[in-house]
Write the structure tokens for this entry.
Amino acid sequence: MTCFAIQTNRLRKVYQGELGQKDYVGLEGLDLEIPAGEVFAFLGPNGAGKTTTIKVLMRLLRPSSGSVMINGVSNTQHQSMERVGYLSEQPNIYGYLTAREFLDFIGKLFGLAPSVRRKRIDGLIGLVGLKDRDRTLIRGFSRGMTQRLGMAQALMNEPDILILDEPLSNLDPVGRKDMRDIILSLKAQKKTLFFSSHILHDAEIVADRVGILDHGRLVQTGTMQELMGSGLKTIEIIYSIPEAGESVLGLSRERIVRQGDRTLTWTENMESAQEILGKLLKNGGKVFSVTPQRQSLEDLFISRIRG
Amino acid sequence: MKWPAIASLTYKETIRNRILINILLFAVALIALSLIIGDWSLGEQAKVIKDFGLSAMSLFGLLIALFIGIRLMVQELEQRTIYLVASKPVRRWEILFGKFAGLSLTLLLNVILMLLALWAVDWIIEKRIDFELAAAVVLIYVEILLIVAFALFFSSLMSPTLAAVATLAVFIAGHLSPILRDYVQLHPGSGLKKLYLAIYYIIPNLENLNLKMAVVEHLERPPHAVGMGILYGLLYLSFVLTATCMIFEKKDLK
């Protein structure tokens, strides 16, 4: 039997409604199989159940039914978390501690020896760029600094699996790039990464496989290649041609957009693009650009969510 | 064992808590003030000071248990810092027990400081230290721990305000519960005898932890009163903490 890094089996989570309110189904029959070393992006609109899934994986929420296995160990056992690092969405960290004190505390929770803790803290503080602020109280940290410290604590146990809830949100462009670089270096180290994101572009860059969640149900899952196929949507051609030659191209009016002396047209396949280009050149036309338009993850996401 | 790390963190957190420092300063000031109040009594100055000082310790212990005990877990949940701890390879009971142990340590320090203040005042009046006071203070400390345990229990079930009311109710009822037992003994034919006894046994008898009068008045104490009080308090405490751990074990950390 294959042992997955993360595996969920018919996971269901129902939130009990407050007095007079209906119960709310947060997750419905979620089956996930994430092999070791894979980077899996978990996408979905607000309220789709991404954070609920992550909290169930991390033992913060108890599932109503179904099970979670981490490296083949049920997550009902606290030991299953020994090789897991977790970063919550907009982490809140004890403001009365310094970054060093906080990471030391996290190290203790993993049962690390003092010498190991010291060494790892030095490395992590440098990795997340908090060297100048490691001895000041966290209370004075910006949101971005807190997020980076959150990432450092997620790496304190040198985990095999990282579960990150919106790791790239709430960061300025530089912070986002730094965080993305950390994620890419973890990918290079063959760590298993499971992360949720609203930023589809980041998912597209980082993920090997994507899952799209909507109303608590997994509506699509697959590798980037499976989801996008060849990914070719249209080929856009920008050209100019003497008025007399326009009719020779045989293009329908709906596919012609004029801007000054330039014209934009498009076609769905390479053969007809080549045919248009041939006619253009033959009739004294000029070609300014030929741009293949590929389906983005965003297109796929929107088509799945809107049905 | 991860709870000592959580206890150490909680100790750090609570020792820096402004409410705690204020309450402690106020308590020490009040014990010092007992010098003046004792001065008004006729020849009973030392007794009044000791009685006043021990009552102040008990009262301020209750206030700390209410203000900090209830916020202890609620704050972790509201600020979502609990995610940092509960997502680690730590058992839920270790989180709760660590929090309790950390606050207990802070409270121990407070009680010691208040006792030292009381001894200092006593030294000024009697030119000696009444070590008997320590017996009453030990039980006051056990009582405070028990109230903290109840504060944690109620705060895991209801809103902080309701939890404070419920904890206060336990404190008051706990000191009045022997009346129920005495009533049943005096009126054995009472139709509600079983109900009264059930309430008496459910609510802790906090008078078992009250040696203030005996110590101040130098009355004869029941044999092993301190030992039995500690045993009674700790047994009750472990029961309440176990129940709280069971609730916390199943709790969704939203």
